[in-house]
Each structure stands twice: as C-alpha cells, then as structure tokens.
Amino acid sequence: MQYDLAIIGGGPAGVAAGVYAARKRLKTILITKEFGGQSVVSADIQNWIGTVSVSGEELANMLEKHIRTYASDVVDIRAGELVEKISKKPASHQEQDDSFVIKTAHGEEKAKTVLVTTGSERRKLSVSRADTFENKGLTYCASCDGPMFSGKDTIVIGGGNAGFETAAQLLAYAKSVTLLESENEFGADPITVEKVLSNPHMKAVNGTRILEIKGDTFVKSVVYEKGGKKEELPAEGVFVEIGLAPTTSFVKDLIELNKYRQIIIDPRTQKTSVKGLWAAGDCTDTLYHQNNIAAGDAVRALEDIYIYLKA
Ligand SMILES: Cc1cc2nc3c(=O)[nH]c(=O)nc-3n(C[C@H](O)[C@H](O)[C@H](O)COP(=O)(O)OP(=O)(O)OC[C@H]3O[C@@H](n4cnc5c(N)ncnc54)[C@H](O)[C@@H]3O)c2cc1C
Questions:
Q1: What residue's CA is closest to ligand 1, atom 12?
Q2: pTM (predicted TM-score)
Q3: Distance, CA 282 to ligand 1 centroid (Å)?
Q4: Over the stretch 201-221, which tens digit does the pLDDT of each residue have?
C-alpha cells in the first residue's frame, strides 16, 4: 500500500502533524521510536501553552493519547520502530509522481509525501573512556540519574543554560558540584549563572579542555587541562551537557543539511530541498527550538502537504 503521508517521529512536532493529518483524512503512517520527545526527562514543563505545569512523562502520555484518540483508521501508528533510511523511488507508469520508501528494521513502507520530525539527541562526550563509563557514573540526564548522587561530589561538563540548570538540580542533594566549561565565558544567561554560583557548594572553571574520564568499574575522576596545566578532579557523578545534535543521519544522502546537520527548510512552508519531503521541529535549521514551536511548525508543514496532495 502507498500512504499519502509518512510522519517520522512522535515528539510534539510529529504528534501535532498526526492529529491534523487525521482530521484532514490523509492516509498516514506515523513511525516513531517513542512518544514524547526530548523534554520527556523534564520534571516540570511550565510553558506548554494551555497547561500550567506538566512533567515530561505526563506530556508524553498526553501526546500519545491525543493522536491515538483521533487516529481511527486514518493514521496507522507504529511506535517502537526506528527509521533507518528514506529514499526516493522513481515514478512508475501507474504513479504520476515519485514516492518515498521508508526503511525500518521491520521492512519498508511507501508514501507519496514524508514529514521528518525526528528532533535532536544529546551530543556525546568524545574523550578517552567516556563511553566506557556511560551509566556507570557518567550520564546525560540529571533529572533521571541525579538523585543517585546524593551526598556525593559531582561534575557538570558544559556551561550553557542546560549545564547550569543541571548544576542547580544537583545542588539540591549533591555534596558539591563543579562545572567545567571549555570557553572563557559561560554561555548560560547571566542571571542563571549568578544565581547558581552563589551556592556555597558550587564551583565553576572556564577555559578547560577535558582529557579523560578515569575510574575502575565506576567513575572516580575527570582529568582536564587549563592554561597548559593538567588537573585531576575526583567525582563520583559526571553530568554531560554539551549540546544537541539533530537526528538526521537517515536522510543525509537525500536532502540538503547545513553544517550542523540540520535539515534546511523554507520557513514559509517547511519544504526541504526534495520535492514531496517536509521537515519540522528541532531537526530543522529554524532559529529557536521549543515544544510549542515544533508543534506549530509541524502544523504549517501539514497544511502545505495537504495543498500539495489535493491541489
Ligand atoms: C531536558 C530538556 C528540557 C526541555 N524543556 C523544555 C521546556 O520546558 N519547554 C519547551 O518548550 N521546550 C523544552 N525543551 C525543548 C523541546 O523538548 C524540543 O524543542 C522539542 O522536544 C522538539 O520537538 P520535536 O518534535 O521537533 O523533536 P523531539 O522532541 O526530539 O522528538 C523526536 C521524535 O522522533 C523520534 N525519532 C528520532 N529518530 C527517529 C527515527 N530514526 N525513527 C523513528 N523515530 C525517531 C523520537 O523517538 C521522538 O519521538 C527541552 C529540551 C530538553 C532536552
């Protein structure tokens, strides 16, 4: 069978598009690794419009419930699946236009149009032995793993807003928090930096270069360099907050990406460089990335896809 539309991703963008596709009765397949997206790890989201406060997990449940309620026989939902590649199939005699082949571990699906909403993933620390200690003291999620380091010395790597927010969370229970930043200035908002640094258990060092994570079964210390001098800082918990990387590797050979591997889109329509393929949310080169923006951008894409299919 050939779908009108394949939506890849089940974060705010993918679900918003799915709900609109159901209302417009576009025969759609929505394939997602999981529902909810990146903010699923947040303890408290206060800016999802219309909702005063919601945890990331609750938001994920709300999104899944919303699409499942209206999916009926219009939107086929395939959760727990990862799209490995999207390619373009040349038009046949029966079909007027090219269609897309979406490959997952479970097989292939065909669709006339595709909307990519696969968001971003945490950028990994690429220094000696960092991967060995992942989930053995080195973690990418303070709200998931932070409480395990109650009363312990911890290190946060990264001095942007996410790094300082992580430090603020850890200060509620850790013995000490030391933040290591590579640049000479912190990227976080000055008001956040000032507030977090006023805590007596907090220290921050800028202009550092991480060299190695040390330990045996679990993390014991971080080795870094500052001003040509090597330092070793003992810690049982290391929290990495060095930014996000767009999840676009499965379309890298098909559409145009920018130098950050974000999908280049036309902001009026969300169209990509390939006819029949749209993208929305954090995987794109739009300037600001938030839940409400991702949902709105996806709705804009869906309106444009509808015109393309029906005009
Ligand atoms: C810790 C944290 C806290 C945040 N807090 C807030 C906040 O308070 N307010 C706010 O507005 N924004 C917040 N954000 C930003 C917000 O989460 C993002 O802007 C938003 O999630 C982007 O939505 P998206 O749908 O574009 O992508 P994502 O949320 O990243 O969703 C991508 C979806 O695609 C799926 N996927 C990925 N790859 C594949 C694949 N190959 N095949 C199938 N499925 C795939 C994923 O499972 C996921 O469902 C936060 C972000 C983080 C990291």
A1: 290
A2: 0.84
A3: 7
A4: 999 999 999 999 999 999 999
